[in-house]
Amino acid sequence: MNNEAQNKMKEFKEYINKIEYLNSAASLLYWDMSVNMPKKGVEYRGKVLGHLTAEIYKLETSDTMKEYLEYFSKIDDLDEVHKSMIKSLKKNYELSKKIPEEKFKEYTILTTQAEAAWEDAYAKSDFSLFQPYLEKIVAFNKEFVEYWGYKGNKYNTLLDKFEEGITVDKLDNIFSELREALVKLLDKIKNSNVKIDESIFKNNFSKEKQEQLSKLILEKMGYDFEAGRLDESIHPFTIGFNRKDVRITTNYCDKDLRPALFSSIHEGGHAIYDQDISEELYGTGLGDGASMGVHESQSRFYENILGRSKEFWTYFYTEVKKIFQEFKDVSLEDFYRGMNVVEPSLIRVDADELTYSLHVIIRYEIEKGLINGDIEVENLPEVWNAKYKEYLGIEPSNDKEGVLQDNHWAGGMIGYFPSYALGNIYGAQFFNKMKQDIPDIFKQIEKGNFEVIHEWLKENIHKYGAVYTPSELIKKVTGEELTAKYFIEYLNNKYSKIYNL
Amino acid sequence: MNNEAQNKMKEFKEYINKIEYLNSAASLLYWDMSVNMPKKGVEYRGKVLGHLTAEIYKLETSDTMKEYLEYFSKIDDLDEVHKSMIKSLKKNYELSKKIPEEKFKEYTILTTQAEAAWEDAYAKSDFSLFQPYLEKIVAFNKEFVEYWGYKGNKYNTLLDKFEEGITVDKLDNIFSELREALVKLLDKIKNSNVKIDESIFKNNFSKEKQEQLSKLILEKMGYDFEAGRLDESIHPFTIGFNRKDVRITTNYCDKDLRPALFSSIHEGGHAIYDQDISEELYGTGLGDGASMGVHESQSRFYENILGRSKEFWTYFYTEVKKIFQEFKDVSLEDFYRGMNVVEPSLIRVDADELTYSLHVIIRYEIEKGLINGDIEVENLPEVWNAKYKEYLGIEPSNDKEGVLQDNHWAGGMIGYFPSYALGNIYGAQFFNKMKQDIPDIFKQIEKGNFEVIHEWLKENIHKYGAVYTPSELIKKVTGEELTAKYFIEYLNNKYSKIYNL
C-alpha cells in the first residue's frame, strides 16, 4: 500500500473500531441480561440494545463505509489480512444493502412477533400457532435469496451467510455419507449386549462443587480466568467483549453431574478460541471465529473428542474423586462409559455425541426443502416426525418435543443449523492432523499436558480469527478438502470399543 | 404548546432518549468494571467507555441540540417539566460549549494523568508528587470560571455546577453556623463521662450473613429487588441504568459489622430515590436526582436519621439476633450506642454522623481559598492540618491520612464536596417536615412500617426527579429556605441523650 492507502487504512480501522466498541457494549448488555439483570429491567434494556444495534447497522451500511470499500477494492497490493477484511466487510455491506430498508424493517418486526408466537406455541405444544409466522419467515427468506442472488441451489445463499463456501452439493455428499454411517453404527449399538450404567451420574451434586470442578478443568484446558469468568444462566453460552474478556456461562443441574460439566467444557472451547485471536485483528472486523461451524468445531473438540476421552479422565479422575466422594467406588472405566452412552432421543440439545448430527441433518434437509418449495410449512410436523422415525427410530409424541423444540427459525435463522454438524466434522479433521503433528498426543493428555493441544489450536486455527474462510482454513490446516471421513472413523473406533461391536 | 411545538417536542425527546440509552449502556460498562470484570479487560473497556462518552458529548453539544434549545426557548407556554427540561439541557450545553474544545481535551488528559499521579502520591504518602497536577487543575478551573462567567464569588460558578442556586454567601452562613454548633457539641462529648463499648461490633461476621441482613433491611426499607440487585465492590456505590434497574454495591468487612451494613442502607437510600423517579421523565434528561446534595440527603436520611435511630433497631434487633448469635447477650441500648459513637477522626469516609460535616467544611474552605487565590496549592498540607487541628482537635501525621485522602480533586471535581454536608442539612430539614405530616412517625418506625416514610419521600421528593432545583425543592417541600437549624437540633437532641450531656 502506498502512503495514501496506508493512512486511509488507519482511518478505516478507526471507523471499524467504533463498530467493534458498540458491539462490545451491546454484548455486555446482552450478557448482563442473561446473567444479572433484575426482571423489571428488561423493557428498557431492550430499547438500549435496539438503539445500539441500529447505530451499528448505520455504521455498517453508511456511505462512508461504501466509500472505504470502493477505495480499497481498487487497491491491488493488499496483504492477506486486509484483503480478507475488505472482502468480509463488503459481503456484510451487500447482504444488508441489497434488501430494501422497508423489507428489512418488516422482517425485523416479523421475527420479534414470531419469537413471541413460538414461545406461546412451544408452551402449548401446538405448531399451528407458530405456522403462519414461519410461513412468512420462509417467504421472506425466499425473497431475500432473490435480492441477494444465488448460484445453483437457492439454499446456497443462506448457507453461505453462516458458512462461506458451503453449498448444497457439498453438504448433500457429506451429510449423506455421515448419515448412513451414523445410522449403521447406531443400529449396531442398539443390538449390542453392552448396557451402560448411567446412574452413577445421577445423584445430588451441590452447585458449589460442580463449579469447583468446572473451574479446575477450564483452568487446566487453558481458559484464562484473568480474561474471562464463569457464571450461571439458563442456557449456557460464550460471549466476548474483546479477546481479553471472554465470558462463559453454564447451567447447574443438581441431579446430574454431566450437563453443567460438559457445557462448561464446551463453552470453554469457544472461549479459548476467542481469547487466542490475534490482537492485530482489532479494527478489521475479523476478530471473530472463521465461521459458526469452525467455532463449533473448537467447542465440540474440547467437549467430546477431548472431554469425553478416556485419557482426559485418566488425568482428571483423581480430582473428581477428591471433590465428589460419590465416585469413591466407581471405576474410571465406568465413569468413562457413563458419559458416553448412546441413546436415540428426541431433543437435539440433549443428544449424545453420535446421534447429535442426525438431528442436524434432519433440519438441514427440511430447510433445503422449504427454501426450494419441496416442503410446505404446514406439513412440517409430519415431515419432522417421519424423519425422526427413519433416522433415529423414535417419534415425537407432540410438537414440543418435535418440530417446535428449537427457536432458530422463529428468529429468522435459516441456514444456520448445518454449522452444528459441520463443527463435528471440522473438529475430527483437525484432530486427525493434530495427531500427526503430536504423535504422543494421548500420552500428553493422560499426563494433563493440555498446553501442547492448546498451542497447536492457537497456532493453526485460533490466532487467525476470521482471516480465512472455513474452506480455506481446513485446507490450510489439514491439506485436504472438507471430509466426513475422519469424524466417521473417530466415532466407529470409539464406540466399537465402548459397545464391544 | 401548539401542534408544531408538540411534534417537535416528541422528536426532541427521541433525541434525548438516545443520549439516555448511551448513558444507560455506559453505566452498565462502569458497573461491570467495578463488580465483575476480569482484570485483563480493563484496557479495552476504557476504550469502549471512551467512545460512548464521546458520542454522548457529541449529541449533547450538537447543532441539532442547539436548534432544539433555541426553538423551545422561544416557546412561552411550556409546562413546568418542559421548562425545567429546556433550562437544564441549556445549562449543560453551555457549560460544555463555552470551553474551547482544545482546552477541554487538554483538561481531560490532565485529569487522567492527575488521577494516576494521585494514586502514586497516595501510595507514597507524598503530596509533592501530586502538587504540580493539582496546580494545573486549579489553574484550569479558574480559567473555566472566566469562560463560564460568575456572579459575586468566583467559586459560585463551580458550586452551581453541582448544586444549582448554592452560593458562597449562603454556604458561609450555613456552614459557619453548623461548624460552631458541631465544634461545641463535640467538645461536650469529649468531656462526657459516657464511654461507649464498640467491641460488640468487632467480631468475625461471615459475608453471607452480613449480606442476608443487608438484604432483609433493604427489602423492608422499600428497595425493590425486582428492579435492582446488591453486589460487592471495593467502594460501595449506586448506579441506575433506568428506574427499573438501579443497583447497589457494598463492601463486607469481616471484622466489623457496621461498614457493610450502613453502606448498604446508605446506597439503598440513593437507590430508592432513583427507583421512584417518575417514568414520564424518560427522555427529558430530568430522570435523575434534583442534585448531588439532594441525592445525598436521601442516602444519609436512611443511613443516619433512620438507620442509626433507636426506633429502627427496636424493630430490626430481633432479626439481627436471629442471624448473629454474637448479640445474644447484648442489649438493644448497647447495640444502638455502639453504632453512634462520636470520635474525631482523620478520614472523612470513616467519620461518624456528627464529625462528618466538619471534614466537608474543611474542604469547602480550602476550595474556596484555592479558586479565589487566597490559598496556594503548595501550602495545602499545612493548611489542611491546621484546620483539622482547629475543628477536630487532631492532626494527620502524613499526607495519606491528610490532604491526599480523597481523589475528587485529581478527577477535576472542585465544587462537589459541599454537597456531602448539604445532604445532611437537607435530610434533617425534610425530616422535620415529615414529622409534622406523620405525627406518630417514631411509632411507625418501631413497628417496621417503613412504607409510610417511603411513600412520603416518593410523593414529596423522589418522583419529581430533577424537575426542581434543590432550592426550589426544599422550599416546595418544607415551605422554608435552606437552614442548618434542623440538622443542628437533631444532632443536639440525639447526642445529648446518648452522651448524657
UniProtKB/TrEMBL annotation, chains A, B:
Cofactor: Zn(2+)
EC id: 3.4.17.19
Alphabetically ordered keywords of this record: Carboxypeptidase, Hydrolase, Metal-binding, Metalloprotease, Protease, Zinc
Top class in the EC scheme: hydrolase
GO biological process: proteolysis
Pfam short name (any one): Peptidase_M32
Family to which this protein belongs: Belongs to the peptidase M32 family.
Name by which UniProt lists this protein: Metal-dependent carboxypeptidase
Organism whose genome encodes this protein: Clostridium tepidiprofundi DSM 19306
Gene that this sequence comes from: ypwA
